[in-house]
Amino acid sequence: MYCAHYAAKRCQSCHWLDKIYPEQLALKQQQLLALLAPAQDTKVLEPVASAEQGFRYKAKMVVLGTVDTPVLGIVNTQDDVVDLSDCPLYPPAFSPAFALCKAFIQRVRLTPYDIATRRGELKFILLSQSRHSGRFMLRFVLRSKNCLASIEKHLPWLLQQWPELEVCSVNLQPLPAAVLEGEQEIILTQQTLLAEQLNQVPLYLTPQSFFQTQPVMAAALYQTAADWVAQLQQQHGDFSRIWDLFCGVGGFGLHLTKPAQQLTGIEIAPAAIASATRSAKELGLTQVQFQALDSAAFAAASAQAPDLLVVNPPRRGLGKQLCQDIARLAPRWLLYSSCNAQTLAEDLAVLTDYKLLKVQLFDMFAHSNHYEVLTLLQRRV
Asked: Any one Gene Ontology biological process term (predicted)?
């Protein structure tokens, strides 16, 4: 991928862009295998490659510049303001969408927030697109409610100019710190969810729910998990009970579960749980229960293990206590998806009762040293 910003050293966010893509993929595979040190009988699959550009369907842009000439992008290490509206990581539809965001900022007179002086209102623009429908979700991260009435007044203009805009909201982040968003979300449109669909599974995204940046790779990840579980059931019989911890909007659990199976999905965010419940209903899954709880606390309070435990923790990993509770519960099968191979390796070192059967790398973040990993483990007899 060629990027003019990288070539001019204005933006180095894609810090591996100087490497050809096959080399990037090979390096990631080497790093993963060095961290996990898989046994000889572990099945190490080939990494799943990414598209080299146009794959990011979620943008997080700092709002810089002035009301009359807003900039969406970053401040680089040289303290230069860099507009990334033309970043080649985004699909083609993002460029005109960013142009409309800038026009709206000018129309509403939204002053970009200045960290040094702690003045201004608009901190970030968060933009997501559904690959399935092409529709967008736009979030304005503001310091306060001072401009809320003006945004509401001019929003009909933006919706008229941008028919693909499905959901629009304001997030309030009053702290003078480098925090992306706050707790309070004010949805301004009639629609409150952005519909996505991966592998014929409907998923619904709320403004504050987590969803993978790259839907094509997410679809491959979920389908692979479903295929691995289907193979297990062919060989060892169907599972009665499945747990999906850190389930988000239900991506893994909804891909894995058959109508007769019991699925329990646990996620701390109530809005994500509501989305997952809606998807399960549309799929006709009646033995499904999604609950808004802390995953670690749920495991700690549980006495009976599922047949299959699915975990997809944040970058910090499972942690020692949750690993110990998994060992106590002793599910026969463990499907662990990780966005941080380092913490994955640390968790596997604690889960000594489990044998690593399969591992596969999914290049969710091309041109960087980050990636997603899917592993399948079996409890030792």
From this structure: methylation
